[in-house]
Amino acid sequence: MSQSHIHSAPGIGEPHRAPRTADAYTEVMVPVYSPLDLLAVRAQGATVWDAAGKEYIDLSGGIAVNALGHCNPALIEALTAQAHRLWHISNTYKSDSTLRLAGALIRLTFAERVFFANSGAEANEAAFKLARRYGLQQSPRKYEIVSAQNSFHGRSLFTVSVGGQPKYSNGFGPAIEGIRHVPFNDLGALEHAVSENTCAVVLEPVQGESGVLPATREYLACARALCDRHNALLILDEVQTGVGRLGTLFAYEHFGVVPDVMTIAKAIGCGIPLSAMLTMARFAEHLGQGTHGTTFGGNSLACAVGEAALHAISQPELLYGVLERHDYLVSRLRQIGERYGVFDEVRGIGLLIGCVLAEPWHGKARDVAKGALTHGVMVLQAGQDVMRLAPSLNISYSEIDEGLARLEALAQELNHETVNC
Questions:
Q1: 34 part of a folded domain
Q2: pTM as predicted
Q3: Among 199, 155, 158, residue whose Cα is nearest residue 176
């Protein structure tokens, strides 16, 4: 490249060169995503504005990430204060904010040890590697991991292999061996699959990506008993359900089943890349020095925000508010579903809610999400037949009402289209 060409290149962030349209997204991004037609530029609470100034009510919560809403003042304060002190020093040294967050997580959970990473996939990768190390130190055959069909645990090669959705693992060569998948909530299948060769059972307390399907208490209790019987680790993937989403600080508290390993992400950073694997000291020792690691995981900036988020979300009044908002939202959504015939079922726990689309809209969850966007409300899909809501845990009732009004307008439109087909 010539020197003159280098000098003529536009500067980063020059206004006349910065992409400002939704169409420009496809010109610069690797096409692994298919985002809806919204170019967000500003947000506050549960309200988002696009580049044209249109307002949207956000009932998606950044896929359960923005647990305290957009631009939360307490998080901004924590982020700004830490930014003026220390951003990153690496895990070669010790950081005070990292130690504070680890200590807070240990005080608030069953755990005695914490490993920080940047994403849910990384937290799960650490958990699965721990399980393999734990099992193989008992027997060379004890490396099998039992997981649920239609589960989702991340996008790394290990986590897509453990996840029970072949569409995410196909096309990347041979899957990692030793993974067994069983139907979710099927006690008999789980009992048949777990053996002396099992090093871990991995479950989501609520299958989020596959339709917002809660586990039964009996199923998780059975998993706990089987792991105890066969000396395997019970790993609960709380990437989506943890940190207040279900109205308890962690989902295992709601179900009354304590795991050996728990993974969290999403809400712990409220949008800052942060995740964690939590476990007991006797299991943590199997990941000794040099067996695993991360450059950015647990950096000072992320942990300072995580500490502020955890403090806010762990307050009893906020957790109780999640339960109150659940009742309010589910009641209103069921009324909309019955009035316009668009939902067969509204299910979920806390503020992880799935609206199962009625037969005329089976397989059209993405189309419904697109339609919601045209009405100024942001929702998610969970599989092909379920509209998913995962709003901020402190979303205001005025924002809920406005979002529901817009969803009702969408339901009325869908019903009208069906009647006139």
A1: yes
A2: 0.92
A3: 158
